[in-house]
Write a structure and sequence with these properties.
This protein has a four-stranded parallel β-sheet with strand order 1-2-3-4, with helices on one face. Helix content is 42%, strand content 11%. With 192 residues, it is α/β, with parallel strands linked by helices. Helix 2 packs across helix 4. Strand 2, helix 6 and strand 3 form a beta-alpha-beta unit. It is built from eight helices and four strands; from the N terminus they run H-H-H-E-H-H-E-H-E-H-E-H.
């Protein structure tokens, strides 16, 4: 996808090793999360071949922000499915860009319906703000206050959860941009 490749290329131009992960976008949990866990395992098993260190940062945008944000507490559950040590799947830190956070209020309906398999009983499990603890990975989170794709209250709720649990984080709230701005290259501006 344009957004993923644009972001990966921008980070690569700054000297970061980058990977874009394709995951099932129209499937409920645990399928997209397992896609991310399997990709993480593959990369971590090949750190020497790829010339990497052990720092492993994850970035997610919009619904992908929900995937990364929820993976950051569900990785322990996923590790038991894959029969690997849970610390092996844990990200060093994460970046959440205009993310879907809550499944209970001001949510992105399509993301909620898909990830929760249209089951209201799953809403709490996938509301990220309800699962932040002191062990949550350090987080950089940003959005635009005029985002019409994902309500910016999602980011504000997450910031509060991070503060309440004393998780190391930083954030930026832009005043007047819409959803999907990525790294703001010309390609992204033209796409949206």
């Amino acid at each position: 996808p344009l957004e993923a490749n644009t972001v990966a290329l921008r980070f690569a131009s700054e000297g970061f090793n980058t990977f874009t992960i394709s995951y099932a976008i129209d499937k409920p949990y645990p399928i997209p999360h397992l896609d991310l866990a399997i990709a993480t395992s593959y990369i971590k098993l090949n750190v020497e071949e790829f010339g990497l260190d052990n720092n492993f940062f994850m970035l997610g945008f919009s619904a992908g922000g929900h995937l990364v944000g929820s993976y950051s507490y569900l990785y322990k559950e996923l590790s038991s499915i894959l029969d690997v040590n849970d610390e092996f799947l844990r990200p060093t830190a994460i970046v959440l860009s205009y993310p879907v956070i809550s499944m209970t209020h001001n949510t992105h309906i399509r993301t909620r319906d898909i990830i929760c398999d249209y089951n209201e009983a799953n809403y709490d499990k996938f509301s990220i703000e309800k699962h932040v603890t002191k062990d949550y990975p350090p987080t950089y989170i940003w959005t635009t206050l005029t985002d019409t794709g994902v309500n910016p209250s999602n980011t504000l709720d997450m910031i509060k959860a991070l503060e309440d649990n004393k998780v190391l984080y930083d954030s930026i709230l832009f005043d007047s941009l819409d959803h999907g701005r990525s790294v703001m290259t010309l390609e992204i501006k033209e796409e949206f």
